[in-house]
Amino acid sequence: MSALDDLVEVDSEHVMQTYGRLPVAFTRGQGTLLWDSDGGRYLDFLSGLAVTSLGHAHPAVAEALADQARTLLHVSNLYYNEHQPRLAARLDSLLGGGGRCFFANSGAEANEGAIKLARRYGQSRSGAERYHVVSAYGSFHGRTLATLAATGQPQKQETFQPLPEGFRQVAYADVDALEAAVDERVAAVLMEAVQGEGGVVPAPPEYLREVRRICDEREALLILDEVQTGLGRTGRWFGFEHSGIRPDVVTMAKALGNGVPIGAMWARHEVAGALRPGDHATTFGGQPLAARAALAVLDVMEAENVPLRAERAGARLATALVALPRVASVRGLGLLLAAELAPGIEAAAVAGHCLAEGLIVNAVTPRALRFAPSLLVSDDEIDEAVAILAGVLEATPLTDPGEVTP
Ligand SMILES: Cc1ncc(COP(=O)(O)O)c(C=O)c1O
Fold it and tell me: Of the four, 87, 209, 262, 399, which is 20 to 30 A from 110 by CA?
C-alpha cells in the first residue's frame, strides 16, 4: 500500500467527509513549488486558496515562527502581548489610518465579528431595529451560521435552515437593486471587491462608488470583505482601492499569516468604539505566534512591494492565458484571475489533468479555472504553468466539439 493509499484509508475512516479531495498528499513546499508524498513536483498556482501569497516555507516567516515558538506561543487576551498592537498599527497604516483592529482566526470569524460590530453600531445609533445586513448574490463570506446567511449562494444555505434572521441578498453590480434594499433597518452592506469563490468577478469600480454613496445616504456601514482580495493580491494593497472608495470596516485573513491561521477586522475609530469590553472575544485571536507571523509577512510584503509584483505578474499571466486556444476570456485583477474556457470544455476535468501534469489550479465555476499563485511568482514559473495548461487544453476531449471555437 502506498503512503497515499494509507492516508486515504485513515482519512475516510476518521475524518468527517466534508471535502471532495483530490488523490494527492503534499508533504513539502518551497516558494511556488510543492512536492507530494511520491516526490512529484507541482507548480502551485492556487496558494492553498489564495493563502500563501509569499509562497511556501518563506524563510523570513519560518524564522519568525520558530523564534516565537521558542519564546512565547500564547497568552490570553486578558493581557497585552508585544506583537498584537504593533500588527494592528501596521494594518491601520496600510488602510490609511484612523481605525482599530480586532483579531480572529479565519475569514469567517473576521466577517462574523464585522456583522456583530455592525449590529452593535446600528443599535447604539438607532435602537434595536437597525441590524440587517445586505450582501450580493454570488458572494462568499464564510460557513458560520451568520456568514453563511450573508453568503449569496442559496444552495449552500438550504441544508442549514433556519439561518439567523436579518440577511438579504441583491444582484451583484446592480445599483437599483441595492437602492431598493437599503432601508432604515439596514446596519451594513457587505461586499467583495472581487467575488472570489463566486467565480473571480470584479465589481465595476463605478458600482463600488455607488455602494459607498448609498451607504452614506442611508447611514449604513460599508463592510469590504477582503479575505481573498486583501494584502496585495489584486495589484493594490486592498481590492477596494481600485475604485477609490474608503470602507467603514474591512475584513481580511488568508494571506495575512501566509498559512498561519489569523483573521482581522478593521473599522474606523468611531465604528470600532461600538464594541465594548465583553462584547466580542476569541481565545486565540491575535496571540503572539500568529501576530508575529503576520508582522513578518507584512515586512516581506512591503520590502517586495507585492501589490506592484502582483500587478505585473498578473498582466503577464493574463496576456499568456488569453492567447491560448480554447480560452474564451480572462477576468480578474492582479494575481486573482479566472480563465473562462471555450464551450465544450469542463474546468474540473482540465484542473484534474493539470494536477496530473504538475500544475495546481481549480475549477472556480464549471467553465472557469482560477489562478492565484504566490505574489512572488517568477516569469519562468508563469511561462511553465501556461505551457502545461496549453498542453492539457489541447489534449482535453470536448463534451460538444461542434461548439468549440479554435
Ligand atoms: C471573500 C471570502 N470571505 C470569507 C471567506 C471565509 O474564510 P475562511 O475559510 O478562512 O473562514 C472566504 C474563503 O474562501 C472568502 O473567499
Answer: 209
